[in-house]
Each structure stands twice: as C-alpha cells, then as structure tokens.
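Q: Hi! First time doing this. I have a protein sequence and I read that you can turn it into a structure. Is that right? Here it is:
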Amino acid sequence: MGYVVKIGGSLVNQGYAVVARALAFWRQRAGREPMLLVVGGGAPVDGLRVLARGWPVDDRLFHPWALAIMDMNATLVAAHFGLATIERLDQWTAGAGIQVWVGAQRLAHIAELDASWRTTSDTVAAWLGYQLQAEVGVVKALPPPSAAPWRLTLENASLWRPHFDDALIEWVERVPVWWSGPAAG
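A: Yes, that's right. Below is the predicted 3D structure, encoded as structure tokens:
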C-alpha cells in the first residue's frame, strides 16, 4: 500500500526544519510502508500566478511551468535530506523508504489533471496516491480543525474545502486523504 505525502510549498518557504518535522511525523505514521514525497511549488508558483494575472493567455501556458517549479522544489528537498528521486510511477519501490517525486512535468498532459490553476500539488498527490493505491497525506501550513492527521471526506467538506484546491474534491472518495499541519507534521 504505502503513502504519498505532499509537503506544501508554503512549508518549503519556511525552511528545512519545518520540512524535517513533517517528514518525521509521516515517516513514523507510515512505519515500514513506502512513502512517496510530493513537494509543492511555494513562493515561485505564487509569483507565477501573479505573472499569469497580467497576461490574457490560457492557463495551459503556465501549467507546465508550475509543474516544473514543483520538480525544482522536490529536487531541493531530496538533495538536502539525501533522498532518492523518481520521475515515473514504475520506479516507486516498496521498501525503499522515502522517495521524492520529480516527475511533475511528465503529468502536464494527463487528462485527469486539468491543465489549469485548479490542479495544484494537492491534486497531484491525490492522483499519484490513486495510481499507486496508497493513502495520501497533505501537510499544509494551516493545521486541520481537529487532531492531525484528519481524514478529508465529502461529509466534512465544508470544513476543508476553503483550504484546498477545487479539484481535490474529485479524489477524496477515490483515495484516503489525510490533512496535517506543521505542528503535527
């Protein structure tokens, strides 16, 4: 089974100590299960969004750039923590500990992942979790409304929807998605 854990780009912006706490929390939760780490875009993607607002072009122009930034941040995290990287799903290895996804750019043309700002690293992590039949952990700067990790469902969507991208709603019934904040993870 295993876990796909997304570390929010806003946490990457805060530095390696915050990311280290998140990794420790989810590593303990995963136990001996394999874990694939997805890293959000953070400040560079936020800057790209600002740039996009000033240009009357289709979101599909910016989508691959945002994915490339995710890969850039993922490479940074992998290098700092000495973690292996993978860019294809068939490279995910059970028992390999934590591996870092650097294949976001390869997802630019996946039909299930809308080539727009609707698709964020949250959605990418959920899609990867679905493909790998793994549970998904989403670590955000904002903690969940109750003890972490907190399961996202359609029934409690009114509590979590304001803090997640719109496209994630399509995945929460397909794959278990858990939310934790920086204090717990």
